[in-house]
């Protein structure tokens, strides 16, 4: 493990996370606190509750992570924090924490775009992954295809015009009474169903622009359920197949628009879906691309990816010696 050592802070949604990452990608220590319990009674993330929870846990988490790494604040070389996009209260808590540390310890602050954290995290998991690569980022909040050309050089090729893919899984789960988060439950139930049983639309399939849309699919799932003509397992399997068909079609289109990429990378919570991973792996092989699916704990929200993005920015010379300005503004 070699310096510089970067402490990363993530607080843009409902996970508070802190990590210390070395220049060679070694994760020296990390901690993550999920707020699921606090939000469960409300059926979704309540921004004010999230922000207050970050305030309570971040400082002790920083102590714990330093302790686990056998380091003191003086051993750090920089502090990186998510500066947006995210729920503004939470982003402010993490960023202000990082600014305070930077100021008190005389360390450079590195303000990280949360999506840059996601975009670069596959290189933390797989140090052999070189630019440029095509990244499908699919979670409850994000649904994008990016051409990752280099550090600080991203081209967004596709995004969703309505729901994110994970959101579509969650809504389908809700319609089928499966609870939250719904993705894993839908995948499990789908194994017992017939993917051809329920005729469902493939929104935007074949469309020239590589955008995603899942709202119409979700409505069709609701109508199928309300019709009483189908069993839940068949609905789950048919939904999953339709979503998968859309993703493959949109990825194919996005690849046509991308430059000469060498790998297809899938990240975000939905990357846990086994049929989706298999279909994408097959697609990558067909197109002579390397297929990279980082371990889930690095591609769902975490702080190691924020610290790592800080390392990448340092190595690329994108951080001024004094760091980013301490009045750097948090973005919603
Ligand atoms: O990245 P993530 O943990 O959090 C954010 O949304 O930021 O992603 C969570 C999303 C949820 O929508 C969840 O239902 C979905 O990922 N998900 C899945 C599976 N596991 C998690 N979707 C489909 N199949 C899965 N096995
Ligand atoms: Zn995220």
From TrEMBL:
Catalytic activity: L-threonylcarbamoyladenylate + adenosine(37) in tRNA = N(6)-L-threonylcarbamoyladenosine(37) in tRNA + AMP + H(+)
Protein keywords: Acyltransferase, Cytoplasm, Iron, Kinase, Metal-binding, Transferase, tRNA processing
Keyword Acyltransferase attached: yes
A single MF term (Gene Ontology): iron ion binding
Domain of life: Bacteria
GO biological process, one term: tRNA threonylcarbamoyladenosine modification
Function according to Swiss-Prot or TrEMBL: Required for the formation of a threonylcarbamoyl group on adenosine at position 37 (t(6)A37) in tRNAs that read codons beginning with adenine. Is involved in the transfer of the threonylcarbamoyl moiety of threonylcarbamoyl-AMP (TC-AMP) to the N6 group of A37, together with TsaE and TsaB. TsaD likely plays a direct catalytic role in this reaction.
Name of this chain's protein: tRNA N6-adenosine threonylcarbamoyltransferase
Organism of provenance: Croceicoccus naphthovorans
Lineage: Bacteria, Pseudomonadati, Pseudomonadota, Alphaproteobacteria, Sphingomonadales
